[in-house]
Task: structure prediction
Amino acid sequence: MNALAGAKVKGGAAAINTLLYAAIAGLVMGIAALALYLLHDQFREPTKDLGSSVIGAPSSQYDGIIAIDPPLALPDFTLNDQYGASTSLGDLRDQVTLLAFGFLHCPDICPLTINEMQRVRDMLGEAANEANFVFISVDGSRDTPEALRHYFEFREIDDIIGLTGAEAAVREAGEMLGLSFEVSEEDVSGGYLINHSAGAFLLDERGRWIRRYHFGVPARAIADDLLRMISD
Result:
């Protein structure tokens, strides 16, 4: 091997070693950054969610439940249920109401939310007849009353009230609750998703907001709240 060829080999090896060291250094830095983030996330205070900045606050031992104290009176609203009938907030009064927002094309959170509402209802037993369970769609364009009815029939759900309506009407219904939702850009097939407030809201018999449940609060905790209210 002549001197020129040897220099090329050595130069190539040096370049490879440099790239290898850079990759290892980047990996180590990435792992260190991830570890610091996880450590920070573990000890940080719970992030404020919709509603917590309006009224009520998490306790020092945060459990995902925010008490709205004093209760917040909500303005009346009117939407259409899964049978096409107009339903207003006034129609829900005289019973406690567990309410959540979502949409039928949701791939994860919304089906889980409906499942949890069903679990809460089952846990109440006969007392469930003293409560309303309401799912309000934030996708009025696709989630028509007929679509809601077919969805509930397919899943054999006959004890949850599905409500839908124009975007402006839904935003108005959820405004005091801090509802926020945003439609994503359509994909190549014309489909889209909607980023929206998750979790559930509890209203008393007068239609006043009294609890905010973040997504993931156990069904048992929500059922206990409803049972206390129903038995009072």
